[in-house]
Specification:
Blueprint: E1 2-5, H1 8-19, E2 27-31, H2 38-48, E3 63-67, E4 72-77, E5 101-105, E6 119-125, E7 131-137
Parallel strand pairs: 2-5, 2-6, 4-5
Antiparallel strand pairs: 1-7, 3-4, 6-7
Length: 140
């Protein structure tokens, strides 16, 4: 699937629609440069899952948690992780994926450990407002 959004609000709405098809155990692996809109897209995912829209970048925390009644969205930032071996020291493997959803920024740094059914979302910066969003894999 491919979408073109013309504002952060459109990016959030697109993500809300994608969230309707997500289920526990899903992994979203983002690709895109700094400022592409990965956190904005995650804001839409959280909103679409009924978890609110107060989503911030986990750059300095490694992970932010957005809890709901039935599941939690774990929003990871792997920018400072050089490879999957570094994950041993972060606690990544302690987070319960099977009953929750993971959204991972800079996923290419841990690509070798992502599950087979990972949903890959590439966000390309076109200009200050416009983004190209490409969604591949998974079961959407």
């Amino acid at each position: 699937m491919k979408f073109i959004t013309k504002s952060p609000e459109e990016t959030i709405l697109t993500a809300e629609k994608i969230a309707e098809n997500l289920k526990a155990g899903d992994v979203i692996a983002y690709k895109g440069g700094l400022g592409a809109g990965k956190t904005t897209f995650t804001r839409g995912i959280a909103k679409g899952l009924g978890l609110g829209d107060v989503v911030t970048s986990p750059t300095f925390a490694l992970v932010n948690e957005y809890r709901g009644k039935n599941l939690t969205l774990y929003h990871f930032d792997m920018y400072r992780i050089e490879n999957s071996e570094d994950l041993e020291f972060t606690g990544y493997y302690d987070y319960p994926l099977k009953e929750n959803i993971f959204a991972i920024e800079w996923s290419e740094n841990i690509d070798d450990i992502l599950p087979e059914n990972t949903i890959y979302i590439t966000i390309n910066y076109i200009d200050d407002d416009t983004r190209e969003i490409i969604i591949e894999g998974g079961e959407l």
